[in-house]
Amino acid sequence: MINPNPQTHYAGPALRQEVETRTLSVLVDNEPGVLARVIGLFSGRGYNIDSLTVTETEHEKHLSRITIITRGTPAVIEQIKHQLERLVPVHRVRDLTAEGVSLERELALVKVVGKGEKRLEALRMAEIFRAQVVDTSIEHFVFEVTGKPGKIETFINLMTELGLVEVSRTGIAAIGRGAAAM
């Protein structure tokens, strides 16, 4: 019998799972090498990280929060979470996407060069997006814009038409809604 689905070794319909984007929040010890171990887990297994932010959040306990945006099928995401939980310096792994609504924000610095009408239009767009001017000259602006990742993408796309020359992004910071702590 010829396998109708060459993607799998088993005859019959393949079990198809959609690739999803997930936000993982990982509480770890703040010590040398922890971030390298977490990143090594992803790279060693061929998983991609779309966004990564990390900082110490509990100074007295020396704990850091790593926020990771990654993509995969539900099975791959579960595998990532279980592998993260097995790392020694990891205290807790939360899948903020699976838990429901989380708050996600990002900061971007956007440099735009232009004169005349394009300069005025860049200022108008910045006002609409509540972007702050943090540096300026006769020929350029640097805007600071914060918000959901989609808002940042839209702002960058609009500025591309108006003289965008450089972008620096922080990556996504996320936290679960409600009274529960990490």
Automatic annotation (TrEMBL):
GO biological process, one term: isoleucine biosynthetic process
Assembly behavior: Dimer of large and small chains.
Function according to Swiss-Prot or TrEMBL: Catalyzes the conversion of 2 pyruvate molecules into acetolactate in the first common step of the biosynthetic pathway of the branched-amino acids such as leucine, isoleucine, and valine.
One GO CC annotation: cytosol
Domain ACT: residue ranges: 23-98
Top-level taxon in the UniProt lineage: Bacteria
UniProtKB keywords: Amino-acid biosynthesis, Branched-chain amino acid biosynthesis, Transferase
Signal peptide: none
Catalyzed reactions per annotation: 2 pyruvate + H(+) = (2S)-2-acetolactate + CO2
GO MF annotations in UniProt: acetolactate synthase activity; acetolactate synthase regulator activity
The family this protein is said to belong to: Belongs to the acetolactate synthase small subunit family.
Database matches in PANTHER family: ACETOLACTATE SYNTHASE SMALL SUBUNIT, ACETOLACTATE SYNTHASE SMALL SUBUNIT 1, CHLOROPLASTIC
Lineage of the species this protein comes from: Bacteria, Pseudomonadati, Pseudomonadota, Alphaproteobacteria, Hyphomicrobiales
Recorded metabolic or biological pathway in which this protein acts: Amino-acid biosynthesis; L-valine biosynthesis; L-valine from pyruvate: step 1/4; Amino-acid biosynthesis; L-isoleucine biosynthesis; L-isoleucine from 2-oxobutanoate: step 1/4
Protein's UniProt name: Acetolactate synthase small subunit
Pfam families (alphabetical): ACT_AHAS_ss (PF22629), ALS_ss_C (PF10369)
E.C. code: 2.2.1.6
